Amino acid sequence: MRKLILILFLLFLVLYSGCLKDSAISPVEEDTNYSKVFLRYLEAQGDYINSTLMPSVISVSEVKDSLGNDVILDVSSASQFSEGHVPGSLNILSAELFNYLDTASSQKRIIIVSRSGQAASYYAGLLRLAGFNNVYAMQFGMVGWNSAFSSYWGSSYSGKNFTNLKSPRLPYSKLPDINVENASGDIKNNLDSRIKTLLAESFDESTFGEVNSDASVHIFYLYTIYHSVDSTYTDTFIMNVGADGSYILGPDGKLDIPGHPPRAVFYYEPNGAISDLRSTAYLQTIPSDKNVVVYTQYGQSSAFIVAYLRLLGYKAKSLLFGARWREATPIAANFAYDMGN
């Protein structure tokens, strides 16, 4: 009997240690790193980034049909807002978004608008992670609203020097290190504080970096990938989040035209059922010691994903305008717009 008990105990130890080894976040580690704390919390609170709600974008047609019923917040600069904005919208600084929503009615949809929709998607992503479930980004921003703003969308690229060879994911690595002011405080308060800090960092969606490789803290430019990234990608990790076709195929779905930059690694887009960005999947194959460049079809989804990764401490940037080597400039609806303040 003792021998049987001993065997069962040893079997339990083997199985238990195996579970810990396979666990992306070991339950026996002390929660001194708030990246782990935030990750556990967000996944327990509905796991927005891996749900069917992501990305929370709304078409310009739906915004137009609902004018007067939604709260429309334009995060463009004052001069850009003056040159044209959705009728009835309010110009607001990104740093003011959290406090505005904290006092706004939860019965109305909050629509975030920017020139191309890239910055709006990033801010909407952060606000969704903060628990504001009525927040959306207007798809393609003012570029999609009226052709008068088409210059805010970058020019296309041919995709030369690209490949359709798959690059493997990297080995699992530790989550980034995040420190908070009050480590023993309420998780939600610490999460909100970090989100407010990230909202205050301006997400510059301008195209100046197309001729200047000095990318901003949130944005990475296709020009930089072509001309400035070391061919060994020592400090840069490029990840495509989407469907198989968006990674392999070139323009118009052609297999004979390479579909992605060299060394880019593919991750399935979040859809509720399958997501490579869960802690139990491949989140920790994203390196925490490199600049992480995320690209999706048009750059709207990648901005949401970058909001999530930056919240967790990754040095993530969204590839501005997404896969422009295979996607055309969005077609504008040519709706009427207001000018001035």
Describe the protein's architecture and organization:
This protein has 341 residues and is α/β, with parallel strands linked by helices. Among the domains are: 48-151, Oxidized Rhodanese, domain 1 (3-Layer(aba) Sandwich); 187-319, Rhodanese-like domain (Oxidized Rhodanese, domain 1, 3-Layer(aba) Sandwich). 31% of the residues lie in helices and 11% in strands. It has a 5-stranded parallel sheet. The longest helix is centred in the first third of the chain and has 21 residues, at 2-22. Residues 1-30 and 211-215 have low confidence and may be disordered.
Structural class: alpha/beta
Rg = 22 Å
Order of strands, main sheet, comes to 1-5-4-2-3
CATH level 4 superfamily of the domain at 187-319:
Rhodanese-like domain
Mean pLDDT: 81
Write the CATH architecture name of the domain at 187-319: 3-Layer(aba) Sandwich
Helix residue percentage: 25-40%
Which sheet architecture does the biggest sheet show? 5 strands, parallel
Number of helices: 11
- How far apart the termini lie comes to 84 Å
Principal-axes shape call? globular
Output the keywords:
Oxidized Rhodanese, domain 1, alpha/beta, disordered N terminus, 341 residues, 5-stranded parallel β-sheet, 31% helix
Helices, strands, pairings?
Elements: H1 2-22, H2 34-44, E1 57-58, H3 60-65, E2 71-74, H4 78-83, E3 90-91, H5 97-103, E4 110-113, H6 118-129, E5 135-138, H7 141-145, H8 187-200, E6 219-220, H9 222-227, E7 236-242, H10 244-248, E8 265-268, E9 291-295, H11 300-311, E10 315-319
Parallel strand pairs: 1-5, 2-3, 2-4, 4-5, 6-10, 7-8, 7-9, 9-10
Helix pairs in contact: 6-11
